[in-house]
Amino acid sequence: MAYADYDNGNEPLSNGWRDWRFMLILAGAALILVSLALPFFSQRISSAKVSFSDGSTITSHYSTLVQGLNLTMSKSPVDAKLDAVDAILTPVSHRRSGYGWMIAILQRPSALRRHLSLVLCLMVPLLAAAAGIGLTIRSQRTPVGLARGWVPAAINIGWGALLGLFLAWCHHFDFSFTLRAQYASGFAPGVGLWGAALGAALIFAGAFSFRRALHENVLDWWALVFVVALTIWLLIRFKPFPYVEIWKFVEDGIVVTLRIVTTSFGLILLVSLLGGLGRISRSRVIYFISSLYVELIRGIPLLVQLLFIWYALPQMFDVLGGLLMSLSPNLQAQGQWLIDLRLSPFTAAVFGLTFCYGAYGSEIFRAGISSIHRGQMEAARSLGMNYFQSMRHVILPQAVRVILPPIGNEFVALLKDSSLVSVLAVSDLTRRGREYMARTFLSFDTWIMVALCYLVLTLFSSRAVEFIESKTRFER
Amino acid sequence: MNRTLNPEIIRIESLCKSFHHGRIVALDNVSLTIPEGQVTVIIGPSGSGKSTMLRCINHLEVPDSGTITVDGIVLESAQDINKVRTEVGMVFQQFNLFPHLTVLDNLLLAQRIVRKRSKAEAQSVAEQLLRKVGIPEKAKAYPGQLSGGQQQRVAIARALAMQPKIMLFDEPTSALDPEMIKEVLDVMLELAQEGITMVAVSHEMGFARNAANRIIFMDQARIIEDTTPQELFESPREERTRQFLSKILH
Questions:
Q1: Do A394 and B114 touch (CB under 8 A)?
Q2: Do B162 and A384 touch (CB under 8 A)?
Q3: For residues A44-74, b (16+ Cβ closer than 10 Å) or e, as one string?
Q4: N or C: which end of chain A has fewer CB within 10 A?
C-alpha cells in the first residue's frame, strides 16, 4: 500500500475499541499495574565484607556499597591481594512488590536521596501504562481513530520501561555481576518483574504497529541527550572503579566550566551588541574602532589570546605602572596599583573568551540588524522615536529572530572552546580531567568521561536553542 | 475650527540634495510653501525628486543645503527633528508596518513611548482609528496576515494615532494590487475632507482631481508647474507637463 494512503487525513487508522492493537496495549497496561503488586525482589544486599590476603577486611554498608565496595578494591592495602567478597543479604518480605519498594523509599526522605534512581526506574513502567491507556482513550475521540501525538510517547516509554525494569533489577545486587554470580539464586527476579516486563513489551509492540500512521519521526533528537546522560550514569553504576572516582573528581570542573561559559556569554552578548551597532554606525570613528577590533581579534587564535592575557598582560601592567610612576609623583598610588594588579584565573578566562567571541558575535549582530529592511527604521523614526527607542522596540526584536540561530551556535562553540582556558590554571572540566589522568594514567577512562560530559552539555544546548528558535517564529 | 490657519505650515527654501557624491541630483534649488489645511499632490516622472522632497520634510533624507521649516520649527538639531516628526505622519509605499507586533501594538507603540499616553488612552485612540479605516476586527492580527490594502490602511491609522498636524503620503498605492487601491484612496479622501494638511506623492490622477487643492508637477529635480488640478489637467502651461500627462492619461 502506498504511503499516501495513510496520509489523506480521513482514512480511519484503527477500528476503534475493538482494534487488536489497542487490546494489546490495554492488556500490557493492565499487566503492568497488576504485576507491580506482585513480588519483585525478595532480597537485597545490605552490606559487603571484603577480605584481603594479609588478613585485613573492609565492610561497606548498602548506602555506600557501590562506591565503597569498588573503591576499597582500588584502595586495597599495599601488597595485599583481594581474597574474597562476602555479601550479607537481607530478605525484604514486607516490601517485596514494586509498589511496596516505591512506597517504602518515598516515605523516608533519607532513603529517597540514596535510592532515587531505583524509584525512577520503577516508575517508568507505570508511565508506560499511563501512556498506553492515554493513547487508547484519546484515540477514540479523534476522527481518524488514532491520537498520533501519543504514539511516539507510548513507543519510547514502552522500551524505556523495559530498560527501567532491567536497571531496577540491577539495583538489588548493586550493578555488580560478580556479586550476582556468587549469589545467583538470591537475585532471581520475582514474578512481578517478569509480568511488568511482558506488559511493557506489549505496550511497545502495540504502539509500534501504529508507527506508519505517523507524520514525524518516532525518535526526537532530545533522545540523544538522554542517551548520553544515561551512558554516563551506567558507566558509573556498572564500572564504579574508576568511573565513580573520575566523576567525583571532574564534577566540580563541570560547575566551573558552566560558570565561565554563562558569565562570558552574558558579556559576549553585550559586547556583540555594541560591536554590531558600531559596525553599522554612520560615525566614521566608531565604525573604524569596532571594525579594527573585529578584524584584529578574528585573526588571532583564541589559545594565543588566552596565553597573552595570562602571561603577557601582567608584564604590560608592570611597564605601564612604572611609566605612570616616573611621569609624576602624584601618580605613585595609581602606578603601584597597576603594578600590583593581577587577574584571577577565572577573570582572565572570562575576559579572554568575551574578547574573542565578542568579535564573532559583533559580525552576527551586524548581519542580523542590517538584514532588517531599512523601511522599518524609517517608519519608527517617522513616528518620532529616537534612534535607541527604534532599535529597542522595532529593530532588535526582529533582528533577534535572525540572530538567534547563529548566536546559539556560538554558545555551543564557546562551550567547547572553554576547554582552552585550562591552560590558565582554571580548574575547568578539561583541566580536572588532565589532573586525574596525570595522577592515575587512566587516559582512556578519563577522557571518555570528560568527552561524554561535554557531549551532554553541548547536545542539551543545541536542543534548547532549537526549542527557543521554534518559539520565536512569526509570520512575515 | 475657529483659529486662523497657518499659511506657511511647511516652508522649503532653496533645497538641494544629490546622491552618490553629486552624480545624481535629486533636488535642485527647490522652494515651496504649503499652507495649513490644504491637500497638495505631487506628480512627476520617476527620478524627478518628488519622493526625496517629501522625505526631506521629516528629515528622513538629510538635505545638502537649504532650510525646511515645519510649523515654525527649523529642522536643525536632533531634538527639533524629533519634535517635527511627532507632528508629521508619514505613510510609505511599502507600508513598513512592524511585523513582530499585532496591528493594535503597531498603533500603540509610538503613542506609548513618544506621546507617553496611558495604555487605556492609547488603546481607545487606536480602536477608534481602526474603526475609521474600516478594519476594527483585525486588531489582534499580525501584519503578515493582512492583505496589502489592509496593511496600508493600518499604516495610515498608525500615523494618525500620533494625531499629526501634517500627513505625508509617499506613493501609498503603488505597491498595491489594483483591486485594493480604492479602499486606501477612500480613506485618504475621507481624511482630505476632514481638513488635515496632506502632501501626497501619487500617480492616482482621480484622487488628485477629486481631493487636491493644489497640484505640483516636478521633473528633473525642479518644480515645473504649481497650480490647481483643474488648470493642470485642462490647460497645462508647460510643454513638459503636456508630454507627461499624455503618457499617463489614456
A1: no
A2: yes
A3: bbebbebbbeeeeebebebeebbbbbbbbee
A4: N
Contact B113 A378 (CB under 8 A): no
Pick from B83, B96, B142: which is nearest to A379 by CB?
B96
Could you tell me if A249 and A437 are in contact, meaning their C-beta atoms sit under 8 angstroms apart?
Answer: no
Is A429 in contact with A257 (CB distance < 8 Å)?
A: yes
Please answer yes or no on whether B98 and A379 come within 8 Å at the CB atom.
yes
Per-residue pLDDT of chain A (476 residues; tens, 9 = 90+): 334 444 455 677 777 778 889 999 999 999 999 999 988 877 777 666 777 777 777 676 654 444 444 445 555 555 666 666 677 776 665 567 888 888 888 888 887 877 888 889 999 999 999 999 999 999 988 888 888 889 999 999 999 999 999 998 888 777 777 777 777 777 778 888 999 999 999 999 999 998 888 877 888 888 899 999 999 999 888 877 788 888 989 999 999 999 999 999 999 999 999 999 999 998 999 999 999 999 999 999 999 999 999 999 989 988 988 888 888 888 888 888 888 888 899 999 999 999 999 999 999 999 999 999 999 999 999 999 999 999 999 999 999 989 999 999 999 999 999 999 999 989 999 999 999 999 988 999 999 999 999 999 999 999 999 888 888 776 54
Inter-chain contact B82–A376, Cβ cutoff 8 Å?
no
Find the CB nearest A381 among B60, B89, B155.
Answer: B60
Q: Which residue of B has its CA nearest to A381?
A: B85
* Closest C-alpha to A202, from A12, A42, A14, A35: A35
Residues of B engaging A, defined by a Cβ cutoff of 8 Å? 58, 60, 78, 82-83, 85-86, 88-90, 92, 94, 96-100, 109-110, 113-114, 142, 144-145, 155, 158-159, 162
- Alpha carbon distance B92, B110 (integer Å): 16
Which three three-digit cell numbers place residue B201?
Answer: 506623492
CA distance B194 to B199: 14
CB spacing of B99 vs A398 below 8 angstroms: yes
Q: Which residues contact B136 (CB under 8 A, 6 or more apart)?
A: B127, B130
Could you tell me the three cell numbers for B239? 510643454
CB contact under 8 A, A385 and B98: no
Helix/strand/coil for B238? coil
ipTM of the complex: 0.92
Q: Which of B96, B107, B146, B158 to probe by mutation at the A interface, max A CB count within 10 Å? A: B96
Contacts of A216 (CB under 8 A, 6+ apart): A152
Q: Which of A382, A403, A474 to mutate to test the interface with B (most CBs of B within 10 A)?
A: A382
Domain formed by B10-94+168-248, architecture: 3-Layer(aba) Sandwich (3.40)
User: Which CATH number describes the domain made up of A250-471?
Assistant: 1.10.3720.10
Least CB-CB distance to B113: which of A373, A379, A389? A389
